[in-house]
Design goal:
single chain; mainly alpha; 3 helices; 0% strand
């Protein structure tokens, strides 16, 4: 079964699973997604894809001026 078929199967059958299992799946997905974001952030740091403090500060100041 390929990835798309698995997703379709899960979507079609998700309403059939009980709450404890649903909660477990939910917690695992949250954990996986957080780990994926951390890995992506670490890769950005390694590649030098950073935003300077000055750039962020200027952005915040612009937000304040638009109120």
């Amino acid at each position: 079964m390929n990835t798309l078929e698995k997703r379709v199967f899960i979507q079609k059958n998700l309403d059939k699973v009980n709450e404890p299992f649903l909660e477990e799946i939910y917690q695992r997905m949250i954990s996986f997604l957080e780990d994926a974001r951390l890995e992506e952030s670490e890769e950005d740091i390694k590649n030098g894809n950073l935003t300077s403090h000055d750039h962020l500060k200027k952005g915040v100041q612009q937000w304040r001026n638009t109120k």
